[in-house]
Amino acid sequence: MPISDKKKLLREMAKNCVNKSKLYRKRHKKYKFRDDIIDLSVSMMVGASMSLTIMGITFPILLIPSAILSGIAFVLSQAQRQYNLKHRYNMDSITCIQLQELSREISIVLRKNHLSSEDYEDFLNDVSNKLSLIEDTAIII
Fold first, then answer.
1. How many angstroms separate the CA atoms of 31 and 87, rounded?
2. CB atoms near residue 96 (< 10 Å)
3. What Rg do the C-alpha atoms of the chain give, in angstroms?
4. H/E/C letters for each residue in 12-76?
């Protein structure tokens, strides 16, 4: 395979890395937003439940909404833990960063003019191995 074809293949690999990186970044933001919303909701419900419990000493009827808010907060926090959103958005962030770094590395090597065909072949194998390692640890899109 001539050097020009190898360079073209490397450019395509870099482009694919950038595109996948954008997808993982988008999904990272989505999961992070959902996780933050759940955290905020649970915190507000727990705070309101505590306030209602304290006021329930004087007005016992307020213990009912307090119990309801506590139950909803519990269910939300368990759902958040079950779906493991923190792990998901952290893994997406790591995958995104790895793909961006690999894309930069490919771009740097493509700018070098003194590489031989064997050097490009070795680098193609190296990039292929790195991509397979990244894809093995990534959560599938």
1. 10
2. 20
3. 25
4. HHHHHHHHHHHHHHHHHHHHHHHHHHHHHHHHHHHHHHHHHHHHCCCCHHHHHHHHHHHHHHHHH
Structure tokens at 82: 């079950």
Instruction: Tell me the pLDDT of the chain (141 aa) as tens digits.
Output: 788 888 899 999 999 999 999 999 999 999 999 999 999 999 999 999 999 999 999 999 999 999 999 999 999 999 999 999 899 999 999 999 999 999 999 999 888 878 888 888 899 999 999 999 999 988 887
Q: What does pTM read for this prediction? A: 0.83
